[in-house]
């Protein structure tokens, strides 16, 4: 079977269950694979709309000769994609402009899933693969239920041969299970070829990533049919991606490469966060350390920004998946290595929360804490595994009053997330302790402290003088993203805490000659000169 030219792509999303806002969705991503066949129609299995939507839209933009159809059973979501005002159901910088150029030309949105599958030559399966909550491997293994459901649906509906493209992040050899299901349920004259084509997009920069990807990875069986299917998909990407960036590898290598990429990116974040703790204890500057280390071409500067911790739907889930895979393969040392990346991330969030409590005189009961940012990162409305949620939960446990502001996350999403981490607590009870504000300044009114949990650019430009005027004193800022100019805020009057400052909560200071001995809150004594002591962010002094 030689590769054929694709003319029509159908991206589909199924609502087998009442998926969460994130899990359901747009087979759109499928569009990515615009295959090369005579009749070109691509069906994109079940996808996460946050990345599937951008993928489909960019394929339509870059391949005007291919018709791209996004199919979803959720009428409300399809209506949003088709809305006259382009009120699309996700926030992604640049996406509206792309949809505006293509919709009605070669980009369409429909609820007719069956037709989409039947007309498609290429089917993308881009479904949610959350961590299992019960049963064997609970807390670590990937739940492949949605992958199986999508695969069985394809087998049930398809009436002609298809290339099925696995786009979800899955354990090694998942494609083998998919192929077994498809072949066991195939109809006469129906052949299924399986490819792995994982996404390497980042929310907030998905459009840029799609326009100029570092690489496109396509995994296939090393058979004549597998290579033909791989070439079909390669020709689609070649419409805008240089051939040297399209990597053709084995099916299992492709599946593992996606897990490995996410694990290693998360590892860098945990590594720099671990170093930030050392910096705080020694007086080293984590920004300077990261800059010096990142200047080495073998290391590079990306993902070396100390913060309150990583979040999102991928990093933690994929590392835990890798841990489970390692344990299943009887590699306990490998499993322990990767588990530590997640444990360091949890440590960083707990350490940050504790710092807030310790700094506010060891109690935040009844005190108002303004949390700026709820999304797991800037330029997205995605809140999955957001560090902000953990911080807020910790503040709730300390009986603080919390005020939240995020420019993109909806109130309904915030309440839903807080209910999830407060099982057994009614929404009314949560609302007695937590409020949602319409602006950063409103959130900070009468607060004891401001916590920057998401690196929105908007927070750089806040009228901090106005914020300071309306806060209780002393007014603290805890910069969990190293976003603001600490010196400027201190000049206004704020007490600023970030990740590179030597934190000394002085209990007593003893003058000996020209030096002070400072007894700190961590129960050790440090010899510091008077000038250094003056510049330390101390809470109080009792000189002796």
From TrEMBL:
Cellular component aspect of the GO annotation: nucleus
Active-site residues annotated for this sequence: 314 (nucleophile)
Reactions that this protein is recorded to catalyse: UDP-alpha-D-glucose + 2 NAD(+) + H2O = UDP-alpha-D-glucuronate + 2 NADH + 3 H(+)
Pfam families the UniProt entry points to: UDPG_MGDP_dh, UDPG_MGDP_dh_C, UDPG_MGDP_dh_N
BP terms from Gene Ontology: glycosaminoglycan biosynthetic process
Pathway(s) this gene product operates in, as recorded in its UniProt entry: Nucleotide-sugar biosynthesis; UDP-alpha-D-glucuronate biosynthesis; UDP-alpha-D-glucuronate from UDP-alpha-D-glucose: step 1/1
Domain of life, source organism: Eukaryota
Signal sequence segment: none
Domain UDP-glucose/GDP-mannose dehydrogenase C-terminal: 370-486
InterPro entries for this protein: 6-PGluconate_DH-like_C_sf, NAD(P)-bd_dom_sf, UDP-Glc/GDP-Man, UDP-Glc/GDP-Man_DH_C, UDP-Glc/GDP-Man_DH_C_sf, UDP-Glc/GDP-Man_DH_dimer, UDP-Glc/GDP-Man_DH_N, UDPglc_DH_euk
Alphabetized GO MF terms: NAD binding; UDP-glucose 6-dehydrogenase activity
Positions that bind substrate: 199-203, 258-262, 298, 305-311, 376-377, 481
Annotated NAD(+) binding sites: 72, 77, 127-131, 168-169, 203, 314-317, 384
Keywords noted in UniProt: NAD, Oxidoreductase
EC number: 1.1.1.22
Family: Belongs to the UDP-glucose/GDP-mannose dehydrogenase family.
Entry-linked NCBIfam families: NDP-sugDHase
Protein name: UDP-glucose 6-dehydrogenase
Gene source species: Armillaria novae-zelandiae
């Amino acid at each position: 079977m030689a590769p054929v030219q694709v003319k029509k792509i159908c991206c589909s999303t199924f609502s087998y269950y009442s998926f969460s806002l994130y899990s359901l969705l747009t087979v759109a991503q499928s569009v990515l694979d615009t295959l090369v066949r005579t009749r070109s129609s691509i069906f994109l299995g079940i996808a996460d709309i946050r990345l599937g939507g951008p993928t489909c839209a960019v394929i339509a933009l870059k391949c005007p000769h291919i018709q791209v159809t996004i199919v979803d059973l959720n009428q409300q979501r399809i209506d949003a994609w088709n809305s006259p005002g382009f009120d699309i159901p996700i926030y992604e910088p640049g996406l509206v402009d792309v949809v505006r150029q293509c919709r009605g030309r070669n980009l369409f949105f429909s609820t007719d899933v069956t037709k989409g599958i039947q007309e498609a030559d290429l089917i993308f399966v881009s479904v949610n693969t959350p961590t299992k909550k019960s049963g064997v491997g609970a807390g670590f293994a990937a739940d492949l239920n949605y992958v199986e459901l999508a695969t069985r649906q394809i087998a049930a509906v398809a009436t002609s041969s298809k290339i099925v493209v696995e786009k979800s992040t899955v354990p090694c050899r998942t494609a083998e299970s998919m192929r077994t299901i498809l072949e066991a349920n195939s109809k006469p004259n129906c052949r299924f070829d399986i490819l792995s084509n994982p996404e390497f997009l980042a929310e907030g920069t998905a459009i840029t990533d799609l326009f100029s990807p570092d690489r496109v990875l396509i995994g296939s069986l090393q058979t004549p049919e597998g290579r033909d299917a791989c070439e079909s998909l390669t020709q689609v990407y070649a419409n805008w991606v240089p051939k040297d960036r399209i990597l053709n590898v084995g099916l299992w290598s492709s599946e593992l490469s996606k897990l490995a990429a996410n694990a290693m990116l998360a590892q860098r974040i945990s590594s720099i966060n671990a170093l930030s703790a050392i910096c705080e204890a020694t007086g080293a500057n984590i920004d300077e350390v990261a800059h010096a280390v990142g200047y080495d071409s073998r290391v590079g500067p990306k993902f070396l920004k100390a913060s309150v911790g990583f979040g999102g739907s991928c990093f933690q889930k994929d590392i835990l998946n890798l841990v489970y895979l390692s344990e299943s393969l009887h590699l306990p040392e490998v499993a322990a290595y990767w588990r530590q990346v997640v444990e360091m991330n949890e440590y960083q969030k707990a350490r940050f929360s504790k710092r807030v409590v310790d700094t506010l005189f060891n109690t935040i009961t009844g005190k108002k804490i303004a949390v700026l940012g709820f999304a797991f990162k800037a330029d997205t409305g995605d809140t999955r595994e957001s560090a902000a949620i953990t911080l807020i939960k910790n503040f709730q446990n300390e009986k603080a009053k919390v005020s939240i502001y995020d420019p993109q996350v909806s109130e309904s999403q915030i309440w839903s997330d807080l209910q999830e981490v407060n099982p057994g607590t009614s929404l009314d009870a949560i609302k007695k302790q937590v409020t949602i504000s319409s602006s950063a300044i409103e959130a900070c009114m009468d607060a004891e402290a401001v916590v920057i949990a998401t690196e929105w650019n908007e927070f750089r430009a806040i009228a901090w003088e106005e914020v300071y005027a309306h806060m209780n004193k002393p007014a603290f800022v805890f910069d969990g993203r190293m976003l603001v100019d600490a010196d400027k805020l201190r000049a206004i009057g704020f007490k600023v805490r970030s990740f590179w400052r030597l934190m000394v909560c002085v209990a007593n200071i003893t003058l000996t000659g020209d030096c002070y001995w400072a007894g700190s809150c961590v129960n050790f004594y440090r010899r510091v000169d008077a000038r250094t002591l003056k510049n330390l962010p101390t809470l109080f002094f009792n000189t002796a």
